[in-house]
Structure formats: C-alpha cells, structure tokens
Write a structure and sequence with these properties.
alpha/beta, five-stranded parallel sheet, Rossmann fold, single chain
C-alpha cells in the first residue's frame, strides 16, 4: 500500500517527562519530531519551514506558551499549533483559539490516542492548506488565459496555439464538445491580438431563427420584413476592427451560409433588404461541437465555407481526457463562488477531490462549475466534502470490478491504476473493520499488519473517522489502557 508523508512536529515543554512521552507517542505514529525543553529555543526552531505542527505547553518559564503561540502564528500563520495544559478552563481554551491555536490537550492524557489523533487532524488541515496554496500559485502562473484554465499537456498545447494565432488575422475554427470553453479560447485569441482594443462580439448561431440570425449578423433596412420598423446595423458592422465569434456555426442554415461566405471572401456585408454592401474589417472565429468535415460530406455544410473557416483549427479536449486539470479548475470555481456567496469555504477534501477527478464530466467544464457552485452554497463547513456533492458522487463504489474499471476507462493508465488501488484499499479496510466489529486491534491482526501501521492506513484512506467506534479504555482487547508512556506522563 502507498506510503504518505508524515507531518514534522515540534514539541516544546519544559517538563522532560511530558516532552519524552509526547515525542514517543508521535514517533510511534511515524512523525519526525523535534523535541525542545525551552520556549525561547522553541520559537527559533518553529521558523524551520519543514515544521508542520507545533505542540507546546502553556506554562513555561522565560516565555509563556500563549506568547510563544502568538509569536509562531505571527511568523508562520500556516503552521498548526496545539496547546497542552494541566489547568484547562473555558477561558484558557477560548484565549488559545483566538490566538490561532488549532486545539488543546489536557494533561495528564487520559488516552494516548487523543494526542496522536489531534496531531493527525492538525497535520491533515496543514496539508490541505498547502495543497490549496499550491493550486493558487498554479492559477497565477501561465496556466490561465483569461478564465481558460489548465495545466495538462493537452491544454498547454492549446495555450501555445492560442499565442501563435493571436498575432495573425487568419480565421480560426474551434472544435470541442459543449462546455469545454470554446468562447474562452476565442476571447483569449482576441485579447492577445492587435485588435484587443476593438470590439469582441459573440453570437450563438443556434439560438436564433434564420430570419433573426441574418438580421442580427448583417443588419436590415426599414420594411425589409415584418417588424423591421427602422434601419439596424448588424453584428459584423458592430465588430468592425475587432473580432466576431460565431458559436455553433454548424447549425447555420444553408441560405445564411452563402451570406457568410461573401463576408469572408469579400470583406463586406449587405443588410437584409439593402442594395449596397458595407465594407467591414472583422476577424472571424467560429466554433462548433459537431464534426464539420462529416457535415460537409453529408451535404449539410457548404464545402467552400468549410475551407474558408478551417484555416486554423483548435481542438479542445473534453475534461474527461485531462483529469489532471480537475483540481485546478475546481479550486478556481471554489474561489469564485465562495467570494460571490461571501462564505469562508477554503478547500476541498481529498475524498471529494478524488470523486471529482474520477467523474466522466459529460457536461465538461460547465458541469464541474455547476457542481462546485452547488457545493459552496450547500456546505456548512469550511471544506467541501463528498457529502456536499450531488448524490451521484456520494454513491459507494460498485462491487463489480468490471463496472469500476469501466468507470475509470477514460483516465490515463497510471492515474486509473492509482485511483482503482485507492478505492480497493479503502473498501478492504472498511470491510475488515466491519468483519471485526470495528475493533482496530483485531482487524490489524487479521490483516497481518502492526496496529500502529494499520491505524495509519485507516487515517490515510479516511476510513477511521467513518468506521471506528469509540473504544473503552479498559478491557482485554483494548490498546488504550495505561502503558509505560502514559504512566510516565501521568
């Protein structure tokens, strides 16, 4: 099974017995630990950028734990700090949380698991913050063109092509499924071109009847048809000097195709009902979700217009073919809709992100955007989890391995294998716990794995929080009774 990076923990306590005990507890869980018995030295050690979590005592000479907490959070606000106190009060807890503490522990520890689990939760929160920051940095890099976002090899190829064609005046045909961001590509080309200060005009050719489409594109004169009560400029004239984006060009009727061909060949438009043409200087970018080559062969699209449009072709890949872009896009939409809703939703849990990445996204980026907007509105937490996603994302994986493999068939082999293994391991651990009545020690023995390593796997695959039942500190099969470490603490 996969190994995960363990959080590096700084423990600061002037009591050597407690310091040694906490260090042993955390090292047994696989955490690298820096143990220091002086608060001033602890402050210097906390500046180490590799420190993820700090565990410190409140009562210490020279520098109190509360002062040390404030100093650490002022210097490194991303570090999670856990306070330890033998004199826990509501006032102390409130003061610590206000100063930035993640949690606090009361000494002597009733259960050593309380120490390791609290640190594990703090480490998970720190890791989530780190992932969020990395995504934010990626969003500010060259992965974003206007709102066109991606870091996959397919999207990097699109970005390169956009940069290249932006400096020409050639007609561009953008092909891709609905929801892949064809208009965003068109806007990126326009705003990187010499025409950036001129109009960008977009029209959906499939949303209008033939008469209205021609009127919108080319304009009309008074009395040219019923309802034409005055002269009107068309969108080609409105876009003069700039760019016109003809979305769903494959749905344009044959008669309108003829008029479009004239614009491309002659650089002029004739308003509906007019006799004299009007010269226009417009760059045409067209887009379609249909295969224009096939439509041409079937006689549904004019061959001469096809070749006029198809000077430069940009093919946008569907989202299912670039799953590595899902986290970046999801985080982008999270920021957008959290800001709109004025909610402090700052991240997406690993389980939720895994569910998002595995989805086939038949609606592409538009569907992902809708899912994230819904989750932001519905969640009551600061992190989106699987429960905040639509019902289809919450369904348990199918027991039939053939069905599961089919659901991953759209992913690259390496990623599909990793996700399939993770799903198997999570189901295996859940089933093992269920079989052993949620007794961790019994399940670990059945798996042939050391108990501490088994508990680490439960946390890694997020099974423990959903499947483990509270265990009594006493009993023949309990591992939470006082051992040498706990006795030293108390």
């Amino acid at each position: 099974m996969n190994q995960v990076k363990r959080a590096k923990v700084l423990v600061v306590d002037d009591d050597s017995v407690v310091l040694k005990a906490v260090t042993q507890i955390l090292q047994r869980e696989g955490h690298p630990v820096v143990a220091i018995d002086d608060a001033v030295e602890g402050l210097a050690a906390a500046k180490d950028p590799s420190i993820d979590v700090v565990v410190l005592d409140i009562k210490m000479p020279h520098l109190s734990g509360m002062d040390l907490l404030r100093a650490i959070k002022a210097d490194r606000p991303d570090v999670e700090v856990i306070m330890m106190t033998a004199f826990a009060t509501v006032e102390t807890a409130v003061e610590a949380v206000k100063a930035g503490a993640y949690d606090y522990l009361t000494k002597p520890f009733e259960n050593i698991d309380e120490v390791s689990l609290t640190v594990a939760k703090a480490a998970e929160r720190k890791a989530l913050k780190d992932r969020t920051r990395a995504l934010e940095e990626a969003l500010t890099a060259r992965s974003q063109f206007e709102d066109l976002i991606g870091q996959s090899s397919q999207m990097r190829a699109v970005f390169k092509l956009v940069e290249t064609v932006s400096h020409s005046t050639a007609t561009v045909l953008i092909q891709g499924e609905s929801g892949t961001g064809k208009e965003l590509v068109a806007r990126a080309i326009h705003y990187r071109s010499a025409r950036r200060d001129k109009p960008f005009v977009a029209v959906n050719c499939s949303a209008l009847t033939e008469t209205l489409l021609e009127s919108e594109l080319f304009g009309h004169v008074k009395g040219s048809f019923t309802g034409a009560t005055g002269n009107k400029k068309g969108l080609f004239e409105a876009a003069d000097g700039g760019t016109i984006f003809l979305d769903e060009i494959g749905d344009v009727p044959p008669a309108t195709q003829v008029r479009l061909l004239r614009v491309l060949q002659e650089g002029e438009v004739k308003r509906v009902g007019a006799n004299e043409p009007v010269k226009v200087d417009v760059r045409v970018i067209a887009a379609t979700h249909v295969d224009l080559s096939r439509a041409k062969e079937q006689g549904k699209f004019r061959e001469d217009l096809f070749y006029r449009l198809n000077v430069i072709t940009i093919d946008l890949p569907p989202l299912r073919d670039r799953p590595e872009d899902v986290p970046l896009l999801a985080h982008h939409f999270l920021k957008v809709y959290a800001s709109k809703a004025d909610k402090k939703v700052s991240g997406i849990s690993p389980r939720a992100m895994e569910a998002l990445t595995c989805n086939r996204w038949t609606g592409n980026v538009r569907e992902l955007e809708n899912v994230i907007e819904r989750a932001v509105v519905l969640t009551a937490n600061d992190v989106i989890d699987v429960e905040d996603l639509p019902p289809g994302f919450q369904a348990a994986p199918q027991a039939d391995s053939a069905v599961e493999v089919f659901s991953l068939a759209h992913l690259p082999y390496a990623q599909a294998k990793r996700l399939a293994m993770r799903a198997f391991e999570r189901r295996y651990l859940s089933a093992l716990l269920e079989k052993n009545n949620h007794n961790v020690s019994s399940a670990a023995r059945a798996a042939g794995v050391d108990r501490s390593n088994f508990r680490r796997l439960l946390k890694q695959y997020e099974v423990a929080g959903r499947s483990m039942k509270p265990r009594s500190p006493k009993g023949p099969d309990s591992d939470s009774g006082p051992g040498p470490v706990l006795e030293a603490v108390s």
